[in-house]
Amino acid sequence: MEKPVEILAGPPDPATYGEALALAAGRRLVLVVSGGVAAYKAAELARSLTRAGALVRTVLTKNAARFITPLTFEALTGQPAYVSQWAKSRREIEHVALADWAEAVVVAPATANILAKMAHGLADDLASTFLLTASARPLLAAPAMNSRMLAAPATVANLKTLAGRGVEVIRPASGLLACGESGPGRLAETETIALCAARALSPRAFQGRTLAVTAGTTWEKWDDVRYLANRSSGLMGRELALAAWLQGGRVTLVTGPAALPAPDLPDLTSLTAESTRDLLTLLSNLEHNDLIMAAAPADFRPAAPVSGKIKKDQGPPGLDLAPNPDILKSLPRRPGGLRVGFAAEDADLLERAKKKLKDKDLDLVAANAAGGPESAFATAESRVTLIFRDGRVMDLGRRPKFAAAWAIVEAVASAAASLAVPGA
């Protein structure tokens, strides 16, 4: 069965973008720029990747050089930019040498013409010859063109062919096009393309695995305008989902109603659950190997929610509470899957985290403070301690939340790998 073409839309959170993109530092990437109006955006892409520490060399088609010069890319990247294999006399064969140098390749913008060449193996200039030679490298293509060209049967067939061969097709967003029409065809956001490039260069520890990650607080209805909740922002869960995605996983982020969704990226989906019971139902029906339970679902709910709005002039109402189900205790363990929980405590952190690991049959608990100066709630940083099933304890110290999430995901990946080793 052919791999479906991935459709990307909105940009990721800029606060996370820089930290995630740093994964491309020191890695070698070739940016192929073809001849569309969006070629100017490729300069911003090259600059972003270079600022993150990536080594970016650029190949422009002859028509791309009509929109933007090779010198622009050389100035932004400090690396060579190429247009023609006939421009200079060199001992090396450029398209072969570049293919050997590259660790990943991004075509942005990818016009209908370059996509057709890629799909049919045509090689009549440096760009297309290089792409054919580098076909074994991770390859991403970000099309940009008029909506009618994008919808043309030939273009649709070419995109399906490329996706079926493993090319990651980053479909354009909709909006106002250079021709004055509106519709799909705008180049995807440069941050989105850059993150996809970082993923192509990252370790693929979760390749072939599906993960469910939860984030944020749930809402428990009191009346039609009020609810019970807690201070969890959902940021850590969002960072965990992004970190697992960057390592090759197919990730579903399930958030409470107030948390930010995941960036709109291929293999990264966002779902929302309002109450703790809604979250349990959703997770029970969601296909996944591994579960990372970073959400802070409400432990209690109003026993008798009120229809309408409780009136202030009637005086303080009584509030009887009922317990919510314990999600981790209610969900069965998935065969071959891992279960990760979080423990946010105001005292006796390690002792309570170890008890939670045992009581809820977890493989790993990430423990952090629920109050005081080390509180993890609604902050950009967290101090996290990992407690493993085998008794190991690892203090990650205080880190930005993405760095903490990356360390947690690495620990989960290591535990997942041990399940696949006989006798481990």
Q: What would you say this structure looks like, in words?
A:
The chain is of the alpha/beta class and 424 residues long. The protein folds into two domains: 14-201, Rossmann fold (3-Layer(aba) Sandwich), CATH 3.40.50; 210-415, 3-Layer(aba) Sandwich (Rossmann fold), CATH 3.40.50.10300. The protein has helices at residues 14-21, 39-51, 64-67, 70-77, 94-101, 112-120, 126-133, 147-151, 153-164, 190-201, 235-246, 276-284, 327-330, 349-359, 401-419; strands at residues 28-33, 55-60, 81-82, 104-110, 139-143, 168-169, 173-176, 182-186, 210-215, 220-221, 227-228, 250-255, 268-272, 290-293, 300-302, 321-323, 339-345, 364-369, 381-388, 393-400. It is elongated. Residues 1-14 have low confidence and may be disordered.
Concise synopsis of the structure shown:
With 424 residues, this protein is of the alpha/beta class. The chain has helices spanning 14-21, 39-51, 64-67, 70-77, 94-101, 112-120, 126-133, 147-151, 153-164, 190-201, 235-246, 276-284, 327-330, 349-359, 401-419, and strands spanning 28-33, 55-60, 81-82, 104-110, 139-143, 168-169, 173-176, 182-186, 210-215, 220-221, 227-228, 250-255, 268-272, 290-293, 300-302, 321-323, 339-345, 364-369, 381-388, 393-400.
Name the poorly predicted regions. 1-14
Broad CATH class of the largest domain: Alpha Beta
Helix-and-strand structural type: alpha/beta
CATH second-level architecture of the largest domain: 3-Layer(aba) Sandwich
Distance between the termini: 35 Å
Compute the number of structural domains: 2
Going across the major beta sheet, what is the strand order? 13-12-9-14-17-18-19-20
Rg on CA atoms, Å? 25 Å
Let me know the average pLDDT: 88
Please provide the count of β strands: 20
Shape: elongated
The CATH fourth-level homologous superfamily of the largest domain: CoaB-like
Number of distinct helices: 15
The biggest beta sheet is recorded as: 8 strands, mixed
How much of the sequence lies in strands comes to: 15-25%
Which fold name is given in CATH as the topology of the largest domain? Rossmann fold
Helix content: 25-40%
